[in-house]
Fold:
Amino acid sequence: MASKPDEFDQESDLTRLYNRRFSGDELVDKQVLWTTLCRDFLEKYIATDATVLDLGAGRCEFINAVRAKRKIAVDPNPATRGLADTEVEVLQVSSTDIDALFDNEIDVVFASNFLEHVADKEILMQTLHECHRILRPGGRMIVLMPNIRYLPGRFWDYLDHHVPLTHVSLVEALELAGFEPEVVIPRFLPYTVKDSRLPVKAELVRLYLRMPLVWRVFGKQMFVVARRVW
Structure:
């Protein structure tokens, strides 16, 4: 009988999975996308003196680009540490057990394309409750993720997708965890940089962000901002 993979083997599988997902050109496109998103859209929700925690930081495109007083990256992938800028604190921990030291300390939890990767809805709720715990009262949780309502088949093209949500079910989960939605955009960004037939250019991203009517055509990911209310 084959032995059960140990933790090191599981982490190695995770690293290999993400290393092969995007080509070199697509990684460059993602870098441009995130730098532009932070400067031209996301920073209206994130103060420059904030403590920001990036949940499921991955290659750290967001947390490296965002302007904040303190920046924390959380990801189980051991490769994340080598991809974070020097001022970013990196925690290789579970989303359901982040760090007891962060009780009521975080101003913003940002989760991009992460919640769909947790094992099931029980873990999803545990994760949201953990985010509630570490956020200060009135702190924000910002979620960007696929909206299953607009891509029911393609969602399953990725081996590590487990939890399909719509903007309605995500809001319901956030409310159960003690959050009050402030902004709910059902259709925001395209599903992935792979959807672009042209190289991602900062000026084109800025133009897209200024045209919400276009989001209704190309948007497959939802954007939700919610505040901790109790």
Notes: The chain has a mean pLDDT of 89. Residues 42 and 66 are 8 Å apart (CA to CA). Residues 24-40 form the longest helix (17 residues). The radius of gyration is 17 Å.
